Amino acid sequence: MKCRICSSDRxxxxxxIEFYQGYPWTIYDCKECxxxxxxxxxxVYNLLHxxxxxxxxxxxQIAGECQLLFSQRDLNGIRNLLGKTSKYRFIIEAxxxxxxxxxxxEIGCSRGYLTSFFILAGYDAIGADISxxxxxxxxxxxxxxxxxxxxxxxxxxxxxDVIYHIGTIGCVEDPLGYTRRxxxxxxxxxxxxxxxxxxxACVLEGQLWLSGAPPPDVVTLYxxxxxxxxxxxxxxxxxxxEYCDSATAFTLFTQRLLRRRWGNKQPSPxxxxxxxxxxxxxxxxxxxxxxxxxxxxxxxARLAPLQPxxxxxxxxxxxx
Length: 320
Fold this sequence. Notes:
single chain, alpha/beta, 2 domains, 7-stranded mixed β-sheet, 11 strands
């Protein structure tokens, strides 16, 4: 099995896991590039966008809230709403810190809510997504600023000052080729911004994947340093790691101290709904809640070692 990311033969098959019913995916490690990966299925993204009960249902909700604020021309309202989430705050703060920035592209824009902030702020901003359903939803909410990811309009508008994407790099088939194409559409000195799923967040014993980012949606996990290693010749790279809140870090630390092994839960329906939960899983959930409550009351959580957040690998590439 060749590595889907770097084409190396130095891969190791780990195990087949099934987060969603009917979607067993085999997990691999690459000893060459350090990524963990599984196979890619492009059809799943439009499916997830068209199922209101899927994990993508949250995108419908946040898009609806942003649509209302957008119609009221409430830029600060959108900023405050999106700023509650670190990955959106990272993009907004970074873009606003750049001088001479106007032309912006979001790749993997979902239903357009983050792009809507920059449209309302007066930037020449557009969004693109692989899902036709997502693009149609974005256009309906925020106007004709959105395109399918393979549209000729995307490349014809280049070069861009800033291109960004949120978590999308965990979902694409060819991350290196994808990033090269993004850099190719930037002007010299232009900036590519994104966050990536962090393999170092798999901290429990035996943990194979991020429970909050299951395949067939997220299909690649990365480590800090990967982007610098791969792109230092063509861009100035800054990589930073976001860490979990203290209560979560304390819970993970105690689980590791007790040598609790990671185990994939019973598969859930991809359309949404709750999986069957075993008695042991219910007991562990209760213990986790009690630990969080104890840590909050005593302040002991502050003593726990830092733990990387699932999607907290933030990357800034400035094109040379």
